[in-house]
Amino acid sequence: xxxxxxxxxxxxxxLPPAPPPAHTPGSGGGSGNRxxxxxNSASTSAGAGGGRGSRGGGGAAVPGAGRALAHRYAALPxxxxxxxxxLRLEALLGDPRDAANPYGLPALTTRTAPTPRxxxxxxxxxxxxxxxGEERAGLLAAAGLGRIPAADQLVRALRPVLRRDVxxxxxxxxxxxxxxxxxxLxxxxxLLAVTATLLRxxxxxxxxxxxxxxxxxQWRPVLAAAFADLLACESLTGVxxxxxxxxxxxxxxxxxxxxxVVPTVVADVLARLELVLTECGHGPAGLxxxxxxxxxxxxxxxxVDAAGVTAxxxxxxxxxxxxxxxxxxxxLPHPAxxxxxxxxxxxxxxxxxxxxxxxxGTGPGTDRQDPQSQNGQNGQNGQxxxxxxxxxxxxxxxRDGxxxxxxEGDGVVLAGLVRGAVRPVDGAGDTxxxxxxxxxxxxxxxxxALRRVCRxxxxxxxxxxxxxxxxxRQALLWLAAAVLGVQEAADDGRGLFLGGPHxxxxxxxxxxxxxxxxxxxxxADPREQxxxxxxxxxxxxxxxxxxxxxxxx
Length: 553
What we know:
The chain has 18 helices and no strands.
């Protein structure tokens, strides 16, 4: 397995100027001067990419250099303008480990008053949810985030603030860009970013001390499993952010699944991180302990506390018939012509185009027939009259065609589960990939077993615990499907860690444990390989996100 080996970190002086903002944060004394100087040097120096990049990721003056800069920024590179906006924002916020920085982790975790305004001067008491809105908009404009149109790329540009503070990141996600992050996903993306910061802190401690304290090596598999869980959750949120916003489906399921699954899984990750940090001597009084305490206080404001999770679970209960459906025929395996991988899984590609409007007489409520199943009428070609594998082609509220004519909607995420179960294994000695395919087949069997009972559950609005358990299981299966789809999309021959089978097998193993489904036979243990990637990222200043983003500080 190839381990991510980043190039040297970019520096603020390599940043080209941002577009003139409508309101630029002021500058003043103290650590604010340091951040203002950093911003000025970042915004006045010539850029390594030769100017702002196009949406495709190239530089304006030197396209080749622009693409190279974007590739150095992350293993899955964003468009150049997104990478530059993120670097500007990180330079404006300052060093997160600087005790004198009001937007550093020491200050944010000890503050009892509301989060200060994002500004170049010292905090003046404005809250993130109150008087700081204008200052917040000024900072986001200074970083150039107002020019980023897609929600998934906007989250990447916002990562520097998301990874510092859940409440602050949630507020910025609501205010940034012409197409803000959907409300259902703001809390999950902020929660994942802050948890990744805690994971880096814990991994840095264990990696730095396990050489002299061998007893700490017992925590390396625990942190590896936490890393895989975070990558799984970010796979789901990344796919949900890339879902085309045009012609929205009533009761769209991807944001609801993420709103339920991400806080549920991350709560388990945080419990493990707290255990590791405490056993390593970093208790509540330390920086990491204060970060955990502040995170717990911020969960209700971000909508990712127990009440928010219950609300999304109720939404999923009512959508159980749709959660249980099977993928459409275009994504079922065909030996002669393998189907194209859905664009939703290709996280580094441009945002998928919105689905075109349906032709007259083929919209919701009509009797339009799925063209892929026209030859399967009356049970021909091994299909039942209601579609392949029992899928009746209906979406939420019984409406036809929830995925649009091109299939790029909520239901297509389940294609990852089908494709993962049938992917061939190259080489008889590849035990990890063979184990991954076996686990995928086991999860697909679980999905098929639950499908029939779920098709009638939830329609009467019942909130019986058994029905809620069905929604829980189906949501976990969607999480597994997103993991398999993202891993396959990243397995493009470049040797990326995200395209390898180790993290995927570890993430799916955790999902099967939560489902109570036994793993199929003895499987290879991928935790050491996943830990090696995590430790390498910590040593080289790479984020624990799904894109392997290089950190400025």
